[in-house]
Amino acid sequence: MPEAQAAELARAGKRWKKVRRAASVSRFSAWTLGLFAAVSLLIGISDVQAAIIGVLLGMVCIIEFRGSAILGRAEERGAVLLAWNQILLMGLIIVYCVYKAFFAEHQSLVSDPQVADLLGDAETRAALEAQVGSGLTSLIDPSNTASLVRGFYLIVALAAMLTQGLMSLYYIDRRRVVREYLAATPAWVVQVHRHAT
Question: What is the DSSP string of the chain?
Answer without folding.
Answer: --HHHHHHHHHHHHHHHHHHHHHHHHHHHHHHHHHHHHHHHHHTTT-HHHHHHHHHHHHHHHHHHHHHHHHHTT-HHHHHHHHHHHHHHHHHHHHHHHHHHHTSPP--S---HHHHHHHHSHHHHHHHHHHH-GGGGGGG-HHHHHHHHHHHHHHHHHHHHHHHHHHHHHHHHHHHHHHHHHHHS-HHHHHHHHHH-
